[in-house]
Structure prediction request, 559 residues.
Amino acid sequence: MRRIPASQLIAIAVRGTMLLLVGVLIMAATKDWGELRWVALLALAGLPGVLTPRHAVLAPLGRFAETVLVGLGASAIALAADQMYALSDGAGASAILPYLAVPITAAMLNHRPLESAGLLSTAAVTLAVAGWLTVLPDGTSQLSHFGYLAACAQWLILAAVGTITTGAMQRAALIRRTPQPYAEATRLLTQLRQVARQLPGATLDPGSIAEHLLEELRPIGRPQRAAVLAASGAGRLVVLAQFGVEADDTSTRAAWETSLDADSAIADAWASQQPQVSGRSQLRSFDQTGPVSALVVPLIAGVRTVGLVALERDGTNGYPPALTGRIVSAATPAALRLEAALLFEEVRSIATNEERQRLAREIHDGVAQELVMIGYGVDNAQATLPEGAEDTADELRVLRAEITRVITELRLSLFELRSEVDRHGGLTAAIAEFARISGNQAGLKVNLSLDEAGRLPASIESELLRIAQEAITNARKHANAANLWVTCTVDPPYGLIEVSDDGKGIPDERTDGRYGLAIMAERAERIRGRLEIRPRDPVGTTVAVVVGGSSRQEGRATR
Prediction:
């Protein structure tokens, strides 16, 4: 059995109540049971609007019939009331006119404002025509009597006001229900900009905020080793800032325990949202020869854990309850700052990707198409050269080859702009695709070494992809190399990208004065990584960028 929608039940209840009210008013005005035929006719005309309220034809026809019946019924009931009370004022029309609001309001509720206005006009015309055609016993037209005109005007105005009010309420409800992403985004970003300008150092960089937090906690807890960690996806954390751990030759950060599935105080603090004290170091590669006191404090914004602070010192009972409470109190305000920075980083990443896509579209639809047309023009000129114009033909061939080269470079640039790390494919897939396509275009033999054990934060993956793209492009365009080696190793929070070629190399590995190298250095600094540009033995150049801590394999080897 089909269930009747609540809106349809409400429509039935409203129409039934109005019909009952009109029936009572008609009996009070005429004392004639026969006049209740108008109630029956209205009920019959209202069936399409009740049973098929969304029908494109039946529902409007039903509402039109109701409106016409109200106009005709008003004149007839006014005449019957005048005869009953021996009057000639026509005020009895008010007995049925309240029902006029039903079809007109129903049309507006079904988002048909033009139909609603049309029904109002139909009611006015019907009332006027019926009143003009109805002749009273004294020989005058019903339309000439003030009572009839006043009753019709009153209820037409009330119906119009009700229709306008219903439309305004609908629009207000729609505005409340309908999200306005751009208006809301503008408001929020404006507030964010104002807040960012008031922050210490006017920064919303998660790494800087994490370093500032460690500086605040250092004189309180006096840790020998400490780190701030945040979520990076796939059940892992990423180190935003740390101190007290010496970097080895392959890393700039310590291999803190970043798995949320491990048996560690870090995983327990994240899951419980409570500070955890442990006698075991939270470093994967730490050679623990003596007692260690470790404290992990969750950074909670609202009900969500946005990060952790891990503090360690040698010895036992390094973090008694009183000291733990002071550290928690000092760290708590940083949770909201860190959450704002992480959200801002995500918004900035989305905006950057959208801008890259927009630039790619504009270049493709503009400069690229114009260059293609110029190439066609050169081809046509070559085809129409007269006999003996060998010099001109040679120049045109050289020009056509140069145009072809520029178009190829432009297409590779478009591919670079459009490339991004797919959430399913990962960083290694994006770098491998770019390396293969770029290498094929330049006739390079591409050698890939890919190992991805997890995912890094989206912002870090994006910057690593851009660094790899710049390094591969430099090798393709300037190295005159025959081979290209690309290594990508991801073991969160550790990441290594290395691009090597066997070309002519560069005489000076410094990044200053070279725009492409300077951009790579800025990107590496932005993700708190280390960029190295060094000669390759025996020939060529190697560009490497490292982020995070030691890889999982290195961490196991040092235990």
Q: What stands out?
A: The CA atoms of residues 289 and 314 lie 10 Å apart. The chain has 16 helices and ten strands. The mean pLDDT is 81.
